[in-house]
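User:
Care to share a sequence and structure tokens?

Assistant:
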Amino acid sequence: MEFIRALGELPVFQGLFDPGWWNTMLDRTTSGHFSPEATILTVGVFVVAGVCIAAGLLLKVSFRRKSPTTVSSIDNPGKIRALLETALTQRSKMRVSFVRDDPGSHSTDATILSVDRTRGIELEMTSLVRASQTWVGKLVSCDFRLRLDPRRDYHNFFAFVVPVLSIAKAGDTFVRMRVAWPARLELEQKRAFLRIEPPRDDILGLELWSELAAKGSKGRLTDPATWGEPLLRFAPDMAGPDMELCNISGGGIRLDIQDLNIRRQRSLFEAGARFLLRLRLAEPEADAPLDFYVALRLQNIYGDPDVAGRKAYGFRFLSVCPPPATDKDVLAWKSATAGVPAIDDWVFRRHLEIYRARGDA
């Protein structure tokens, strides 16, 4: 109260405490004369607005820094330790990949050797992985699965991102990598294990290129026009297509290929080879089909390599992106090592349709 009275005694503020000050201010303003009352009110409004804006910005920054935990994550230290120790006990494989949006990003399976909150997680990989000291300090994405209920054939999937702490060779056979202890585990609601054999009419088109074509002297990973003609293709109206889709899931695809079609490129079709695929899937629920470019790694080859005929090739999705909207746009690759959600959802919907068509639902 004393502060307000002191302000009122100042000449510039005295007008605000006089009876009829509002009418006086209006008269002076409309007549074009200087009004100290109006000036004080205007400055006050701007000061209050500035304070509110600054407070809002501070709250926004503070909220972002806190990075609140969602229902799909675990940040309890005890639960994290228990889950990682369970992964060690169950000898779960851990898939490791660098955190980067590159269709050529490598990922590999590792065995968990030890888990320690202080020292981190020690992983063992085959010496075929070209690990180097340049990995130290880089971020890697690690995902693993656990069967938490022994009575059910169901797995829970977890993932985390941490930096690499050290790299060391263990003889000539293995490489050991130590990564930091995670502060949080993300729960991944994967349905990548759900694999269907879709009707042929649901596959609108397939085109397969070797990744080498996109990394050649004229090729660019971001521009499909530079990849040249595909190695193999499929279209519903083709008589004797180069390949056919056997089954698909959110995490990969299996293609049936006539041996004659790859005889000249047999060296390209070896385990670990990388490919690029244009995939178009019918989507009855939408006006347009699902259309993707997918980077693949050849995981498995089914069938005797010395026997001619059709063979199945299993591919794992590495990266994905929609086709460019215009000729001037480029492909924006995103990691798909945890699966492609849009394909995953498509497979689930088709699964329900097939299930109902059989009279099981």
